[in-house]
C-alpha cells in the first residue's frame, strides 16, 4: 500500500465533472478519481477548513463512529475493476479490526475529516497512477506497445501536451457550491 494525500478537488469546466487528485506521500505519482458533486463539495469544504451550521453526511458518519467508540484507522483504495475504484474503511472497534466497503469518494471525505491516512494498493497505482518527472508536469502512463526511443520521446511529448491541456481545463473547487 502507498500512502496518499488529497492534492486537490477540481472541476472540468467543459463537462462539470469533478475529480479528486491524490498524491503519493513519498513518490511522485498521482491518482485521479472522478467523483460526484456532493462528495467533491464535502471534500473541498473540509480541505478549506470551512464548517457548516449542521453536520454534512460525512460529519454525521464521523460523529457516529466516534460515539460508538470506534476509530477510523485508515482508508484503503483497494481495487480497480472495469474502471471502478473500490475502497474500504478500516476501523478499530474496541480492539476488533473491522473493514467496511465504501466508495472511494465517501472514504476520502471521511478521511479528511478524521485526519486518517489514505492508502492505495500498489496494483491500483500501477494501472491508474500518473508518474511525475522532474519537470513536475504529469505524464500519462506509458503505452503498452514496444517502440524505439526516438518515437517514444515524440509520443510522450504529444501525450504530455494533451495531458497538460486536460489539467489546464480543470478548475480548482475553491468556491463552495460552484457549478
Automatic annotation (TrEMBL):
GO terms for molecular function: nuclease activity. Residues 1-132 form the BFN domain. Coiled coil: none annotated. It comes from the Bacteria. Residues 129-160 are annotated as: Disordered. Residues 149-159 have a biased composition (Acidic residues). This is BFN domain-containing protein. It comes from Thermosporothrix hazakensis.
Amino acid at each position: 500500500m502507498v500512502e496518499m494525500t488529497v492534492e486537490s478537488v477540481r472541476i472540468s469546466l467543459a463537462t462539470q465533472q469533478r475529480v479528486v487528485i491524490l498524491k503519493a506521500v513519498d513518490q511522485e505519482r498521482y491518482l485521479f478519481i472522478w467523483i460526484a458533486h456532493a462528495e467533491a463539495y464535502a471534500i473541498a469544504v473540509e480541505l478549506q477548513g470551512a464548517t457548516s451550521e449542521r453536520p454534512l453526511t460525512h460529519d454525521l458518519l464521523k460523529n457516529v463512529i466516534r460515539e460508538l467508540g470506534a476509530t477510523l484507522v485508515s482508508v484503503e483504495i483497494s481495487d480497480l475493476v472495469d474502471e471502478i475504484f473500490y475502497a474500504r474503511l478500516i476501523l478499530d472497534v474496541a480492539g476488533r479490526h473491522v473493514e467496511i466497503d465504501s466508495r472511494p469518494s465517501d472514504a476520502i471525505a471521511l478521511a479528511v475529516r478524521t485526519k486518517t491516512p489514505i492508502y492505495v494498493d500498489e496494483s491500483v497505482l500501477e494501472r491508474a497512477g500518473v508518474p511525475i518527472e522532474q519537470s513536475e508536469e504529469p505524464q500519462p502512463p506509458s503505452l503498452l506497445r514496444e517502440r524505439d526511443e526516438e518515437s517514444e520521446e515524440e509520443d510522450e511529448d504529444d501525450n504530455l501536451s494533451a495531458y497538460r491541456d486536460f489539467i489546464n481545463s480543470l478548475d480548482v473547487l475553491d468556491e463552495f457550491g460552484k457549478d
